[in-house]
Design a protein that fits this description.
Elements lengths: L2 H13 L4 H16 L17 E3 L5 E3 H5 L4 E5 L6 H12 L1 H6 L3 E6 L3 H10 L6 E3 L4 H5 L3 E3 L2 H9 L4 H5 L5 E3 L2 E5 L5 E6 L9 H12 L1
Parallel strand pairs: 3-4, 4-5
Antiparallel strand pairs: 1-2, 3-8, 6-7, 8-9
Length: about 220
């Protein structure tokens, strides 16, 4: 089953559980974000990626350039462990981790959550790849992915039990669009996927196909 089919099944189940006014509000805010053109302004194929040093849940710093010295890197920006669509995506990539590493590549996931919350995400899904904490979205900002969650959704998210300021350790309500990048050893983006609609994500098969091209 493709990741997008899994995501669609999750979305269909969600639409059956929430009142129409809630669904319409969420659809409207997503549509406005899509219409803003933010995805089109994010980092593109052929561009160089900014280096970063980000902590893993143990507080150890992970450096992008050091990873690139070993081979290509797959970067996956996700909104947070509170997002069920993100968890589906992370699990889908975990299932293909052996294929990714078999092509000489590293897989890294990045969110604005605190290291403690990143640890919870990694443990909950038994993730075997680094889950890094980009507090303040400084790295995601350099990729052009960051936006502020509309104020009309703050109360709704809190009612859902989602406290983004608490998860991220700040009061900004800023989160990244989901974004997935394949970066070759010289730091150039070879595959880029960013979508303002959080129910859509890059298929692992597409990422692996690009890695296969790079290994030829």
């Amino acid at each position: 089953m493709s990741l997008q089919v899994e995501l669609q099944d999750l979305y269909t189940g969600f639409t059956k559980k929430v009142p129409p006014e809630v669904l319409n509000l969420m659809l409207d805010t997503t549509r406005r974000l899509v219409d803003s053109g933010i995805a089109e302004k994010s980092l593109k194929v052929g561009e160089k990626v900014p280096d970063f040093n980000l902590p893993n849940p143990k507080g150890e710093s992970v450096n992008l350039q050091s990873l690139l010295e070993k081979g290509p890197v797959v970067l996956n920006f996700y909104r947070g462990g509170w997002c069920p669509y993100c968890n589906l995506e992370l699990n889908a990539y975990q299932r293909r981790l052996q294929d990714i590493e078999g092509l000489g590549a590293s897989l890294v996931a990045i969110s604005p959550e605190t290291p403690d919350n990143s640890l919870s995400t990694a443990e909950k899904s038994d993730l075997k790849f680094p889950v890094l904490s980009d507090q303040g979205n400084q790295t995601a900002n350099k990729f052009g992915l960051v936006f502020q969650l509309p104020s009309e959704l703050h109360e709704l998210y809190l009612k859902f039990g989602i406290n983004i300021p608490k998860s991220n350790g700040d009061d900004s309500w800023e989160i990244p669009m989901p974004g997935t990048y394949v970066i070759d050893k010289d730091g150039t983006v070879q595959y880029a996927y960013a979508n303002a609609d959080y129910t859509k994500r890059a298929e692992p098969d597409e990422v692996i196909s690009k890695l296969q091209e790079l290994s030829d």
